[in-house]
């Protein structure tokens, strides 16, 4: 091969201009494919079956036929239907229509790959479907999709070479024409390969740049790796030293856990719910999964400021009941009334839309803490707390930030405000989740086994925070837990459930300390034995 | 916000790409009838043709071409944004006679007829052999030149090929997709098998240059195309390539015009007749070193 000839063709304006046409085709194919792919993905993720079927048919058709046929179709068949497109428009359109099917699959898998616990937590915080997509799902899906999108950009660029057969004056067409005219076959093809590689290199560079930026966590100033290690070591040390006070432990909560004085309106001794003026009233809640009845006519009430502990073996329906209260789960029958408003189902008997449910959660002042923390992993600790205040409750940025810092201070994590959630221990994460849940000053807080995903040495720090909430905030709480001693200390009322029914209800002290039904006796005995 | 910044970068990048591409969008190579054809255009016949066809005057007719045949149509090595060759000059001469300009849309050989029949181009002047099968794709042909095919082989004709006959048995023939030689070579297969030999293998490529490379790299034993094109390749690779045989094919080279455009078609035929009568077509053949070129009387092939 002649090096001079190669260099001549490498710098030949004719070929370099072809590279720019290739770039243009790639850009149109990529951006157009992305836009249409987003529509296709939305159609496939929607509840409307007709839209899903249309999108599926389109995907099957365009993914199942060669791009070269689609190019020829767009260029030479559409004119017979009166649509005459210039080569560059026809090429861009055919590329975009083809790429859309691949983008739609990338979007779908990206969205499905987002941790569902986080989207559930977002719903519980009152985010409607749009805000949830914008604030939680899309940012996390995007960072997962970046490598695949980079791949697709390179694929689009290489596919654009096929547009040479419909007269788009891109690099491949010019290469072939030049080779036909000059006979310098090898020099031209090698120069073209180098030009394509330069373009691929540029695309890869952009991909890496976007990738590096997209993995950054909003609000995180620096990765507190050293601090994280120190924090963990101290937490462990604290736990071995008898839960003493140390960094990472809520300052005002340090020290031995105290028995909390009961307050709030205690339920009637017969355990019947008293709906009037209640913070929460459930009547006749039934929930079935297929043939299996998970909740079988549950009645429950909590007065303002009352702390209700839901106790019972695994599978007794505690979590499902909490999710039904927060409208994260549908119910087959029964009513849920929070602070006087009936949630979830309107007068027509139809379940409300997700956006209406989101508004109802906010209006009713209900919030929830989950077993697995479910912090938004793409946001810093402070943003996890402050974000929903801005997005849902319309707080000003500085007010939301101040509230976040105040609450993080109160749960002993002030110095972790700028940290990434993943750099925190489980106990710390759960304390952040609690701060997030109470940030907008809810009137009813639901806690779904908040300590069961934690290592034993981290349980105490979370229980202290919850105890403090019950003592200082006067929050109405419904708490599913297996921690009997804790429940006895913090709860006014204990509700023992088994097999989807409420078996025994009464003052926590009595139900836990001196249960009257055989099932409750067996359960309390077993749990007490395990706790000792 | 990091995300906003990321999106900003992406948006700026895309805008930059589009801006760059837009400002450097190459123009389609164009050529207009030059003073070279002024005398032809001023002649009585051409003047009359323009009077009879006022719709053509001042128009730009887009020529669909497959610019991979040196001597007939390729881009210019000196100015790759323009086309050159016998067909390019002939098209310009016709345009000058009838009063229209010519521009070009380069497509794959197999896409020539679909491009014109779909209206993406107005005519084909691209060394295209006029056959009924091709006409059935939606064009009428106005013939202008006779067909002499050459057989390009490696130096010394090692396989002793003698034409499109049983000497091809067991060999590999490189051909362009859509060329008329494809069915002719395939038709030899049964004769080979009757003689207990293997049928020839046809290897199809997109351009003549690819076919020539197939011979140079030993992948194919022969390549068939217009004899002038074959001779051009031999001149480029005198040590490696040879011509085995010249075959007179029962075709003529024609200009493709969309079916139904009779006025345009007949005007082109009349212009060709005038160009031939003034000896211009032979001058062009000499200019482009098409030694075996013979005018064909402009006749119409139409199946529509």
From TrEMBL, chain A:
Membrane topology value: Multi-pass membrane protein; Peripheral membrane protein
Membrane spanning residue stretches: 20-46, 67-97, 188-210
Gene Ontology CC terms: ATP-binding cassette (ABC) transporter complex
ABC transporter domain span: 280-524
Origin superkingdom: Bacteria
Keywords per UniProt: ATP-binding, Cell membrane, Membrane, Nucleotide-binding, Transmembrane, Transmembrane helix, Transport
SMART domains: AAA (SM00382)
GO MF term set: ATP binding; ATP hydrolysis activity; transmembrane transporter activity
Domain ABC transmembrane type-1: 19-207
Record localization: Cell membrane
InterPro entries membership: AA_ABC_transptr_permease_3TM, AAA+_ATPase, ABC_transporter-like_ATP-bd, ABC_transporter-like_CS, MetI-like, MetI-like_sf, MetN_ABC_transporter-like, P-loop_NTPase
Pfam families referenced in this protein's UniProt entry, alphabetically: ABC_tran, BPD_transp_1
Chain residue ranges for the region called Disordered: 226-252
Primary subcellular site in the record, as a coarse category: membrane
Keyword Phosphoprotein: no
Family affiliation: Belongs to the binding-protein-dependent transport system permease family.
Listed NCBIfam families: HEQRo_perm_3TM (TIGR01726)
PANTHER family: AMINO ACID IMPORT ATP-BINDING PROTEIN, L-CYSTINE IMPORT ATP-BINDING PROTEIN TCYN
Name this protein carries in UniProt: ATP-binding cassette domain-containing protein
Organism, scientific name: Mycetocola reblochoni
From TrEMBL, chain B:
Residues that span the membrane, as ranges: none
Principal location: other
Signal peptide segment: 1-24
Keyword terms of this UniProt record: Signal
Subcellular location: Cell envelope
Residues of the Solute-binding protein family 3/N-terminal domain: 64-292
Pfam families, per database record: SBP_bac_3
CDD domains, per the entry: PBP2_MidA_like (cd01004)
One GO cellular component term noted in the UniProt record for this chain: cell envelope
InterPro entries assigned to the protein according to its UniProt record, in alphabetical order: SBP_3_CS (IPR018313), Solute-binding_3/MltF_N (IPR001638)
Similarity section: Belongs to the bacterial solute-binding protein 3 family.
Name by which UniProt lists this protein: Probable ABC transporter substrate-binding protein
Organism (species): Mycetocola reblochoni REB411
């Amino acid at each position: 091969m002649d090096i001079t000839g190669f260099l001549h063709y490498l710098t030949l304006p004719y070929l370099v201009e072809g590279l720019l046409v290739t770039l243009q085709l790639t850009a149109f194919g990529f951006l157009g494919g992305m836009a249409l792919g987003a529509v296709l993905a939305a159609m496939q993720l929607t509840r409307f079956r007709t839209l899903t079927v249309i999108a599926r048919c389109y995907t099957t058709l365009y993914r199942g036929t060669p791009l070269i046929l689609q190019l020829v179709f767009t260029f030479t068949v559409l004119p017979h239907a009166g649509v005459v497109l210039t080569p560059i428009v026809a090429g861009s359109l055919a590329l975009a229509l083809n790429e859309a099917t691949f983008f739609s699959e990338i979007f779908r898998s990206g969205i499905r790959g987002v941790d569902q616990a986080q989207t559930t937590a977002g719903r519980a915080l009152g985010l409607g479907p749009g805000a949830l997509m914008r604030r939680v799902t899309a940012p996390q899906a995007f960072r997962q999709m970046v490598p695949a999108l980079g791949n697709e950009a390179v694929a689009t660029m290489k596919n654009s070479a096929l547009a040479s057969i419909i007269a788009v004056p891109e690099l491949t067409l010019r290469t072939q024409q030049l080779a036909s005219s000059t006979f310098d076959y090898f020099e031209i093809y090698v120069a073209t390969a180098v030009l394509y590689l330069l373009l691929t290199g540029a695309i890869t560079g952009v991909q890496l740049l976007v990738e590096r930026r997209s993995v950054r966590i909003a609000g995180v100033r620096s990765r507190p790796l050293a601090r994280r290690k120190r924090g963990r070591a101290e937490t462990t040390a604290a736990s071995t030293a008898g839960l003493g006070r140390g960094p990472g432990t809520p300052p005002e909560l340090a020290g031995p856990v105290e028995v909390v004085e009961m307050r709030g309106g205690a339920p009637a001794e017969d355990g019947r719910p008293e709906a009037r003026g209640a913070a929460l009233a459930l009547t006749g809640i039934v929930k079935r999964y297929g043939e299996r009845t998970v909740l079988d006519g549950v009645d429950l009430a909590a007065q303002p400021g009352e702390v209700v502990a839901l106790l019972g073996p695994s599978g007794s329906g505690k979590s499902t009941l909490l999710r039904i209260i927060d409208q994260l789960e549908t119910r087959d029958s029964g009513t849920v009334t929070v602070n006087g408003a009936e949630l979830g189902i309107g007068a027509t008997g139809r379940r409300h839309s997700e956006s209406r449910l989101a508004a109802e959660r906010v209006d009713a002042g209900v919030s929830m803490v989950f077993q697995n923390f479910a912090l938004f992993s793409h946001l810093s600790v402070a943003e996890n707390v402050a974000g929903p205040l801005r997005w849902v409750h319309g707080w000003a940025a500085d007010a939301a930030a101040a509230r976040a810092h105040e609450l993080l201070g109160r749960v002993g994590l002030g110095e972790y405000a700028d940290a990434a959630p993943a750099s925190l221990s489980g106990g710390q994460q759960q304390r952040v989740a609690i701060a997030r849940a109470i940030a907008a000053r809810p009137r009813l807080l639901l806690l779904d086994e908040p300590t069961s995903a934690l290592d034993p040495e981290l349980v105490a720090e979370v229980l202290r925070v919850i105890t403090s909430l019950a003592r200082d905030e006067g929050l109405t709480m419904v708490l599913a837990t297996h921690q009997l001693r804790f429940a006895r200390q913090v709860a006014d009322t204990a509700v023992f459930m088994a097999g989807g029914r409420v078996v025994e209800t009464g003052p926590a002290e009595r139900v836990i300390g001196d249960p009257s039904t055989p099932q409750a006796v067996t359960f309390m005995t077993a749990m007490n034995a395990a706790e000792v | 916000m990091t995300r906003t910044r990321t999106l900003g970068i992406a948006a700026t990048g895309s805008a930059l790409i589009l801006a760059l591409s837009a400002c450097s969008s190459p123009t389609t190579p164009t050529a207009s009838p030059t003073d070279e054809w002024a005398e032809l255009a001023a002649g009585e016949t051409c003047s009359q043709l323009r009077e009879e066809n006022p719709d053509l005057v001042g128009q730009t007719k887009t020529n669909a071409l497959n610019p991979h045949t040196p001597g007939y149509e390729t881009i210019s090595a000196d100015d790759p944004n323009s086309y050159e060759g016998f067909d390019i000059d002939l098209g310009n001469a016709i345009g000058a006679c009838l009063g229209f300009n010519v521009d070009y849309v380069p497509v794959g050989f197999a896409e020539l007829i679909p491009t014109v029949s779909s209206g993406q181009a107005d005519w084909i002047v691209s060394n295209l052999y006029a056959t009924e099968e091709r006409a059935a794709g939606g064009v009428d042909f106005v013939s202008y030149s006779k067909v002499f095919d050459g057989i390009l082989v490696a130096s010394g004709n090692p396989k002793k090929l003698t034409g499109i006959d049983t000497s091809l048995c067991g060999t590999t023939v490189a051909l362009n997709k859509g060329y008329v030689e494809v069915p002719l070579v395939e038709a030899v297969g049964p004769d080979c098998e009757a003689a207990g030999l293997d049928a020839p293998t046809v290897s199809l490529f997109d351009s003549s240059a690819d076919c020539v490379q197939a011979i140079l790299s030993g992948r194919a034993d022969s390549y068939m195309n217009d004899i002038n094109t074959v001779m051009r390749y031999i001149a480029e690779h005198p040590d490696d390539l040879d011509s085995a045989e010249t075959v007179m094919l029962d075709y003529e080279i024609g200009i493709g015009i969309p079916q139904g455009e009779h006025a345009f078609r007949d005007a082109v035929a009349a212009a060709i007749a005038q160009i031939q009568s003034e000896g211009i077509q032979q001058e062009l053949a000499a200019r482009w070193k098409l030694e075996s070129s013979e005018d064909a009387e402009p006749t119409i092939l139409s199946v529509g």
